[in-house]
Amino acid sequence: MSAHASGEGGTAAAAALSGAAQGPRAGTVAQRHSGPGRPSRRFPLITRDTARPEGGGRAASGQAPAPARQWPLLTVLAGVAAGLLVVAFDAHRAGTLVIGVSLLVGAVLRWVLPSVGMLAVRSRFTDMVTYGLLGTLITLLSMMTQPDPWLEIPFLEDVVHYTVR
């Protein structure tokens, strides 16, 4: 009886059946030429899986509910959503400050915590630089918006004057 007919579907059963049918020469060409017990350094022709980013594991145990396992990402998303809500109520400076600070919190969480769940998208360094740079820029731009900016950078006026002539 086949694996599918007996109700034992899945890739493990199919791999076991196909490996038995192919004999001792089973495997990719790179695996056959690299020798026994020695993995190949060549990339496979067909990618089966992608590596999880460093620190991309669950932020809480597997028994915890899904929101608890992803609390770092949900913290940043809640901050951004709160900032967008504040912007919708016509307080653009305060709202964009909340968004920028939320991204900075994401950078700090990525730096401090060993596992941050889905907040980990790339390498730890790239995530920290991306979240930190975007958070800093959004925060600075929100403090420099007109009218009555909270932060004035004198050379920026000269840069705009000479580039927009």
Keywords, please?
165 residues; mainly alpha; 55% helix; flat; disordered N terminus
Termini gap: 81 Å
Decide which structural class fits the backbone.
mainly alpha
What profile does the largest beta sheet have? none
| Share in β-strands | under 5%
Low-confidence stretches: 1-10, 12-21
What does this protein look like?
There is one protein chain. This protein has 165 residues and is mainly α. The protein is 55% helix and 0% strand. The protein has helices spanning 11-22, 29-33, 66-69, 71-88, 92-112, 124-143, 154-164. It is flat and about 70 Å long. The N and C termini lie far apart (81 Å). Mean pLDDT is 77; it is low at 1-10 and 12-21.
Blueprint (SSEs and pairs):
Layout: H1 11-22, H2 29-33, H3 66-69, H4 71-88, H5 92-112, H6 124-143, H7 154-164
Helix pairs in contact: 4-5, 5-6
Task: Give a summary of the structure in a few sentences.
By secondary structure, the chain is an all-alpha fold. The protein has helices spanning 11-22, 29-33, 66-69, 71-88, 92-112, 124-143, 154-164.
